Amino acid sequence: MIHIPLLASVALLVDLPDHSLTRGQMGTVVEYLGSGDDQAVLVEFADDQGQTCAMVDLKADQLVILHRGSRAA
After folding, report:
1. How far is CA 27 from CA 69, 71, 73, in A?
2. Which pTM was predicted?
3. How many Å apart are CA 15 and CA 20, to the nearest integer?
4. What residues form DSSP beta bridges with 33?
5. What gap in Å lies between CA 44 and CA 52, rounded to an integer?
6. Contact 29/4 with Cβ under 8 angstroms?
7. d(Cα 10, Cα 65) in Å, to the nearest integer?
8. For residue 45, which of 22, 68, 25 has the smallest C-alpha distance?
9. Among 25, 42, 59, 67, which is 20 to 30 Å from 19 by CA?
10. How far is it, in rounded angstroms, from Cα 26 to Cα 41?
11. How far apart are CA 35 and CA 17, in angstroms?
12. What is the residue-level pLDDT of the chain in tens, covering all 73 positions?
């Protein structure tokens, strides 16, 4: 399982119509949930003004970690 750091910026790899979220939307990991095979992360999604629009528990395979910076590979 991929370890996603707390406070990491992430983007959705799937649509979540029940939460009005679509693939590519960015959020922040705010909590770890469960353990072992049931491990998930709580992700906060905010609007352009910084107001929370959704808090969703997700599996690591539903997310991609976003990296900032210009460090060469």
Report:
1. 18, 22, 25
2. 0.86
3. 8
4. 40
5. 7
6. yes
7. 4
8. 25
9. 67
10. 14
11. 26
12. 568 999 999 999 999 999 999 999 999 999 999 887 788 999 999 999 999 999 999 999 999 999 877 666 5
